[in-house]
Design brief:
Blueprint (H helix, E strand, L loop, with lengths): L1 H31 L2 E7 L18 H10 L5 E7 L1 H9 L5 E5 L10 E2 L4 E10 L16 E5 L17 E5 L2 H9 L5 E5 H10 L8 E3 L5 E9 L6 H17 L1 H7 L3
Parallel strand pairs: 1-2, 6-7, 6-8
Antiparallel strand pairs: 3-10, 4-10, 5-8, 5-9, 5-10
């Protein structure tokens, strides 16, 4: 009887100690660590990401995340990484968050997503003299289209390849414009808002050399995606509530208006 009682006490102490160790580790992951590390592509991609000191802010993708998270007590740090390495580190949980549209990710269920904070329109851009116009993917068959490396275009993906659309990938919007201007690409897949911002703020790009379709070939809402770790769920819930409040009171619009 004494032996059984001693054994029971020993088991109870071990279980209690293990529980005490486990609970704080969960709290640390979800609440105590208030620094969020954001992976951003290592390219100049205004107005979404800006590294030029003559422009205020770090770009809309970073500024919105800071505006929502900092009132909740979190600090945002960014890490510029090549696209493939950034995704690898996100999947390994060595970085925490990235900005993307859910529709552009081949395996969206592998991540945790916030609500959308900004709409994105993708359009075809041509040289001013081009007669091309996009109404359906087949319009671009036999043409060379330049796009950003690592981007996923759901409407067009099945139309890239031999006998269809020839896709060329580059690392920056400036390279896209250059290839179109030099005639080495028939069109570029560009973000309308981002391209309009470039043309307004960097007149050296000579925007009169180009034109864009009036109608977007695709649109999607930008969100923040987190590494698939359930400890992020409480933060994402808080984030979405704060984001909703910012949409209602005009704070989000004020940030977005700075980059339009």
């Amino acid at each position: 009887m004494v032996y059984r009682k001693a054994l029971f006490v020993l088991v109870f102490v071990v279980v209690a100690a293990a529980s005490a160790l486990f609970i704080p580790s969960q709290a640390v992951a979800g609440e105590a660590d208030k620094t969020i590390l954001m992976f951003v592509p290592d390219t100049d991609w205004p107005p979404y990401l800006i590294s030029d000191p003559q422009y205020p802010g770090a770009g809309v993708l970073v500024d919105v995340l800071k505006a929502v998270a900092e009132p909740l007590g979190y600090t945002i740090e960014t890490k510029r990484l090549p696209n493939k390495r950034g995704w690898m580190l996100l999947n390994k949980r060595n970085v925490d968050v990235h900005a993307k549209a859910l529709e552009w990710v081949k395996n969206p269920d592998e991540y945790l997503w916030t609500d959308s904070f900004m709409m994105n329109e993708d359009v075809m851009l041509y040289s001013a003299a081009s007669k091309l116009k996009y109404t359906k993917p087949e319009d671009m068959y036999g043409k060379t289209i330049v796009c950003i490396d690592g981007f996923f275009y759901p409407v067009l993906e099945e139309h890239f390849g031999p006998g269809k659309i020839n896709k060329v990938c580059v690392s920056s919007p400036y390279a896209m414009l250059e290839l179109v201007d030099l005639g080495r690409a028939d069109a570029a897949l560009v973000n309308r808002g981002g391209t309009q911002w470039l043309f307004r703020n960097r007149l050296e790009l000579k925007p009169e050399r180009f034109r864009m379709d009036d109608t977007a070939f695709d649109s999607a809402g930008y969100r923040y995606l987190f590494a698939n770790d359930e400890s992020w769920q409480p933060f994402i819930g808080k984030f979405n509530r704060e984001l909703k409040a910012m949409k209602k009171d005009g704070r989000l619009k004020a940030i977005l208006d700075q980059y339009r």
